[in-house]
Design brief:
Pfam families: UvrD-helicase (PF00580), UvrD_C (PF13361). GO terms for molecular function: 3'-5' DNA helicase activity; ATP binding; ATP hydrolysis activity; DNA binding. By secondary structure, this protein is of the alpha/beta class. Helices cover 47% and strands 14% of the residues. Helix 4 crosses helix 15, helix 6 crosses helix 14 and helix 36 packs across helix 37. The longest helix is centred in the N-terminal third of the chain and has 32 residues.
């Protein structure tokens, strides 16, 4: 099955993209594969575009222009992009529409939440909320977000294609696997009996502690107060959270030595709580309820999508997986696919892995490129165990398919990482872990030698921070000292060689990246850097509480509602730069004059301009209105003046992006977009804590991001923070478990023989002193969780440490670098990797000992603040002129009435009697019909039958279903042509004669209805008026004005004299001469 699969191991910085390009280009050049026979998947659209462009360039260099052009027909993109194309191509076989509607990312979560809300009954919600309280999940008045647990279950269920039967099986096995650690149920002890006993013993113990004069310690006093509080809770609720029973079960450690005998009875009784029916019922009920809600919500969501003919990306993956089992599809793809190429295979989800395995069976060749050491997206569904099974089934990797060279890092860093991670990954052969550095101190064929200054210092740097005096070692101390160390580093910057540059230069702030374990840690580090006067480039929340966003939102709210006085105050404070006391005084004065006309603040410049904009933006879209406010009020200049201009401009751009995203979302959901809707959309982002600020990467800002976000990036200097983190080996929560951990994975059915385990922890963070929990901690489940956590954090550390090009800085404090120690110790080596007060390290590679550069700080808890300095933002003009008014290019009503407003005409001259037209006939359309017939009937000697057919045809076109008579058209046309032939015999008649000219810089481009040439450069004009009499009376001045304009333009165009001009009323059979 895997005979055609080539696995390529590409470690960090080893030239993975180059290898992908070379593999594909070589196969195309040799003719082994066709451009149209390639399927290549990448992790991002950007990576797909880069791969395609590199291969095209390689083909063009070989003179293969036809193949380079045909490469556009290859399926190169993300997994989702590939799946959509396959579904649309094989829509009939997949049972979907060829124009299947894919629910966009973000919309799917909202729609699923609606589905979950539709299936959860109030009774279920009450039960779950009650269980959250008894299980200690909801504490201190703060409700536990159990819906997040449901969503977590749903993601795993759908991401692993678990069926309804799999869900029921997982629910049952989750309880049975946990129940084996619980003590037997005490059938003779009900919850009521147990609580009565607890209440009595609690009271006795409290009174004994209170009366124990031999123990006057603060510890015992606090314990007594705690028991009194529990007595109050028990009296109020008749039951305590199980967490409290767990605490009472080891209460001897909470009192002084002289009181321990007094609490022994309470402790012994509390330790019996795991055997109560109620305790075990609560755990099982909570787990079962969450499984049931997840199951029903998935079913409701599926029904919602089926009714509307929509699918989301998870459905798409399942449909593609099923589609690849279809015989016709298999035959078609087997004939077409020459090459399947998978990039970053270690990050694929279980369903995606199954898809790739099916496609590999159909393709002539398969090439998978990646690095198992960088599989860090387990929280997104990636499962290293399945990937390891594929690699094991495929056999040892050919040495030719191992990228051996590191093109990124200096030799010190490569050797240190080799020594550390060969030990950290004992299950991976050393040749697949270690790399050979290209960047040597003395230089190499592909890298220049390092300067003496750079070569004199090791690329591995150890910063050690100690508190001054009795200062407590805390996270705040570490962050503030780290920020100070960064400031000192920038004050004396070392030489670096950034990517793409050929000469060394001094380090800049933008060359530094600080990696943290969590987003919260990133925010804290960024704030510490700000205290030291160092800008930080960080994607953080709080967009809508920034001053620039507040000002822009106030302007939009005022545009929406002129009576929004809070927005007026914000505009005056931020935009007009009034101080708050003056704004309050101004408001009070206005209220004292409330009988006066006008709105508060209308005299202010910005608010006055907003009032003007409101008049002309009523039909603008949200994004258009936002951009107009930004431009016309010059809000960018105002925001930049507050400092940190680049970040503020980035935040304003983020608001513009969100406006477009909101409009796109409305378009997808077939709803109307409005300014009010946009403001509600932003409010929803705030509630979801998803109002992320713009991340402005710039040379003067230090990059602060998580280890996970750093994957695929690199910087000259990387600071790996949080190295003292403890191991996160939690056996509680969700986990996908194989039926038999020792059995090999069935690669024909990689998603089979697995189930979802969910265990709820009833004790919060209490981990010891409870027998059944201690037994669980010694079980195979905990051992597996610990081993998985060790492997996961080793992979994450590998990703972080291999981002550095020139300097890798490892800061430590009192807690040392336990994370690094654990990784190094996976190979059986017990040592303090980053020992303080020494430049030696345990790292050695190929006989080369790697030393570190050691720097030591002894600092107070808080560092003195430094002012922030920012780069200036250039603007073209000091003051923008704003929008300049321009006269209209064409002719409008105002121009006509201003220029020819005094027009007059003579009495009507009838050339025919007014026809007796049925009142039901549309007068305006009848007039146009008569005018059109007169134009077609202008020739003499036309066949009478042809004239009648023409009249009847025009009536059918202009007046369908109306009682109009063709005789009226025939009679009026004959009378009109007799009229002009009698009054101007021999005149040459032109109908719809084009006129194009300019009058007072206004352009006129229209056809005159009738033009009679009298000879001797003399003409007469006629302008058809098809309005009913009442409407004509309202527009008479406008019609006469336009006729006079036509006469003036005709005089220019024809270079002749206009003797007369007439308003012609074809439906009434008369003309009125207009005085020129």
């Amino acid at each position: 099955m895997l005979n055609n699969l080539k696995l390529i191991s590409a470690g960090a910085g080893s030239g993975k993209t180059y290898r992908l390009t070379r593999e594909m280009a070589d196969l195309l050049t040799s003719g082994t594969v066709r451009p149209t026979g390639i399927i290549a998947t990448t992790f991002t659209k950007r990576a797909a575009a880069e791969l395609k462009e590199r291969v095209r360039v390689a083909l063009l260099r070989q003179g293969m222009s036809r193949e380079a052009n045909e490469l556009t027909n290859a399926l190169i993109g993300t997994v989702h992009g590939l799946g959509v194309k396959l579904l649309r191509r094989f829509a009939y076989e997949a049972g979907v529409s060829p124009k299947v509607d894919i629910i966009a990312d973000g919309d799917d979560q909202r729609l699923f939440n609606l589905s979950m809300a539709a299936v959860i009954s109030l009774d279920q919600i009450r039960k779950i909320e009650h269980l959250c309280t008894t299980l200690g999940l909801s504490r201190n008045g703060e409700k536990y977000n159990w819906r997040k647990d449901v969503l977590g279950l749903v993601e795993i269920i759908r991401g692993n294609n678990f069926s309804r039967e799999d869900i029921e099986r997982s629910k049952r096995l989750s309880w049975e696997s946990l129940q084996q650690f619980l003590p037997p149920v005490l059938e003779d002890l009900t919850l009521q009996q147990y609580n009565v006993r607890i209440g009595r013993v609690l009271k006795e113990t409290y009174e004994a502690l209170f009366a124990n004069e031999a123990d006057g310690t603060k510890k015992t006093e606090s314990a007594a107060l705690y028991l009194r509080n529990l007595l109050s809770q028990l009296k109020e609720r008749d039951h305590l959270p199980w967490l409290e029973y767990a605490k009472l079960g080891r209460f001897t450690q909470e009192v002084g030595a002289k009181s321990r005998d007094l609490v022994s009875d309470l402790e012994e009784l509390a330790q019996r709580h795991p055997g109560t029916t109620a305790f075990q019922h609560d755990i099982r009920a909570y787990q079962d309820l969450l499984f049931d809600v997840a199951r029903d919500a998935i079913a409701e969501y599926d029904q919602y999508k089926k009714k509307r003919g929509r699918i989301d990306y998870t459905d798409m993956e399942v449909l593609v997986l099923d589609l690849l089992d279809h015989p016709k599809v298999q035959d078609t793809l087997r004939d077409e696919i020459d090459l399947l190429m998978v990039d970053e295979f270690q990050d694929t989800s279980p369903i995606q892995l199954a898809i790739f395995l099916r496609l590999s069976q159909l393709a002539r060749q398969s090439i998978w490129v990646g690095d198992p050491k960088q599989s860090i997206y387990g929280f997104r569904g990636a499962e290293p165990r399945l990937m390891a099974a594929v690699m094991q089934a495929n056999g040892p990797i050919d040495p030719a398919n191992i990228q051996r060279q590191s093109w990124r890092s200096r030799e010190d860093l490569v050797y240190a990482c080799n020594s550390l991670f060969v030990s950290a990954f004992p299950d991976i052969p050393a040749e697949e872990v270690s790399l050979d550095p290209v960047r040597l101190r003395e230089g190499s064929r592909f890298s220049p030698p390092e300067s003496p200054e750079m070569a004199a210092h090791s690329g591995l740097v150890h910063w050690h921070f100690e508190p001054e005096g009795k200062t407590r070692h805390s996270a705040v101390f570490m962050q503030s000292t780290l920020a100070k160390a960064v400031r000192e580093l920038l004050a004396n910057p070392p030489l670096v060689l950034p990517k793409g540059e050929k000469t060394e230069r001094r380090l800049r702030a933008g060359d530094i990246a600080i990696l943290c374990r969590s987003n919260f840690g990133c925010t804290a580090v960024a704030e510490s850097l700000a205290d030291q006067g160092i800008p930080a480039a960080i994607a953080r929340t709080g967009l809508l509480v920034t001053a620039e966003a507040t000002l822009l939102m106030a302007c939009l709210k005022y545009m929406l509602n002129p009576g929004d006085t809070l927005s007026v105050a914000e505009i005056m404070l931020l935009g007009c730069r009034h101080d708050l006391p003056n704004i309050i005084d101004h408001r009070l004065e206005f209220m004292a004059r409330e009988k006066e006309n006008g709105s508060w603040g209308s005299c202010e410049g910005l608010i006055g301009r907003l009032d003007e904009l409101r008049k002309v933006t009523s039909e603008h879209s949200t994004s258009e209105m936002l951009n107009i406010v930004l431009e016309r009020l010059d809000l960018r200049r105002i925001a930049v003046a507050w400092g940190d201009g680049e970040q503020r401009l980035s935040n304003l751009d983020e608001l513009r992006r969100l406006a477009v995203a909101y409009e796109d979302s409305c378009h997808r959901q077939h709803t109307a977009a409005s300014l009010g809707g946009y403001l509600l959309y932003l409010d929803q982002l705030i509630r979801e804590k998803n109002d992320k600020q713009g991340a402005s990467e710039r040379p003067d800002a230090v990059n602060v991001l998580t280890y996970h976000r750093s994957k695929g990036l690199e910087w000259p200097t990387v600071i790996c923070y949080n190295l003292d983190q403890s191991l996160r080996a939690d056996v509680w929560g969700r986990a996908v478990v194989p039926d038999d951990p020792a059995a090999p994975v069935d690669l024909d059915r990689p998603l089979a023989n697995r189930w979802l385990r969910y265990w709820v922890n009833p004790y919060d963070r209490i981990s010891g002193g409870i027998p059944w929990v201690d037994a669980l901690a010694e079980s195979d489940f905990q051992l597996q969780a610990t081993e998985q956590a060790l492997a996961e954090e080793a992979r994450l550390l590998y990703v972080g440490m291999t981002r550095a090009r020139d300097y890798l800085i490892l800061p430590t404090g009192k807690g040392g670098a336990s994370w690094v120690n654990r990784a190094y110790g996976r190979g059986g080596k017990e040592t303090d990797v980053l020992a303080p007060d020494t430049t030696e390290t345990p790292f050695t590679w190929n006989g080369v000992d790697v030393d570190k550069r050691y720097q030591h700080w002894v600092e107070p808890r808080q560092q003195p603040a430094y002012p922030m300095t920012y780069r200036s933002i250039p603007f073209i003009d000091r003051e923008r002129p704003g929008r300049k008014p321009y006269a209209p290019l064409g002719v409008d009503e105002t121009f006509l009435l201003d220029r020819y407003g005094s027009s007059t005409c003579s009495e009507a001259v009838h050339y025919a009697g007014t026809p007796d037209v049925d009142p039901a006939v549309d007068h305006r359309l009848f007039g146009r019909c008569v005018s059109a017939f007169m134009a077609g009937d202008s020739g003499e000697g036309l066949d009478p039958e042809y004239r009648r057919e023409l009249a009847e045809s025009l009536i059918t076109d202009f007046l369908p279903g109306q009682p109009a008579d063709a005789e009226h058209l025939l009679d009026l046309s004959v009378a009109f042509h007799d009229f002009h032939r009698t009054n101007w015999p021999g005149a040459e008649l032109h109908c719809q004669y084009p006129l194009r000219g300019r009058v007072s810089h206004r352009r006129y481009d229209k056809c005159v209805d009738w033009l009679l040439g009298l000879g001797n450069a003399e003409y007469i004009l006629m302008y058809d008026v098809c309005l009913p009499p009442k409407q004509y009376q309202q527009q008479a001045g406008l019609k006469m004005a336009e006729l006079r304009l036509q006469a003036e333009v005709a005089k220019q165009v024809l270079g002749a004299q206009i003797l007369a001009a007439y308003l012609h009323f074809p439906a009434q059979g008369c003309v009125n001469e207009v005085k020129l």
